[in-house]
Fold this protein.
Amino acid sequence: MSKKKILCLFDVDGTLTRSRQVIDPDMNRFLTEVLKPTCALGLVGGSDFNKISEQMNGDDVIKRFDFVFAENGLVHYKYGSEGPRQSIDKHIKEDDLQRFINFCLQYLSKLNLPKKRGTFIEFRSGMINVSPIGRSCSQEDRDAFERYDKIHNVRQSMIDALKKEFTNIDLTYSIGGQISFDVFPHGWDKTYCLTHLESEGFDEIHFFGDKTDLGGNDYEIFNDSRVIGHKVKNPDDTRKILKELFKL
């Protein structure tokens, strides 16, 4: 019997790294030296490539991993080479984009939080990232906002308001990480990256993620019939599951 062709596909934040932190050197060695001889390795994150490479300790992540899917795969690298990009501004009319951004800014201007910093809206290739506290906050502020949001549902309340206002645009809203949520056209969630894998001939694709509940940015791909989903609690849990799965 021939050996199965397997891909292990990982979320980044909360799965391979602590939130917005750099991957632990031992975890990196485990993936690239222990796991990689057993299967192909892939990353899929909602963040842009610069943020993913920063967390994965360098741009050479496209050499260490066989597949790197930034912005859910709208920016992607296969075996070290970049493929064609997709862009949200080619999919949604400029008038609708500006109306959406203006509504977000107005909503956020009326929102009172324990702290606010800067960069509340980040326009990426394939999505708009909205952060009520602002992405330029410190790690301490991130942790505090996450705790506050769990009690007051700041992000979910804003998403509910956006869904009510923009019924004419087919958008998906996805909460990920500690301080923000992503907005993108329907179907541009993490399952989008699977379109780049259809011709690769994998017998099994194992996906590992921590935000797999409804509304989390791993939910759609975790439940996709094309993958075998593994819910993890943190990087240590990811490593434990991998050791058990592949008997390492």
Summary: The longest helix spans residues 94-109. The chain has two domains: 6-86+189-246, 88-185. The helical segments are 25-35, 49-55, 61-64, 94-109, 139-152, 154-165, 219-222, 235-246.
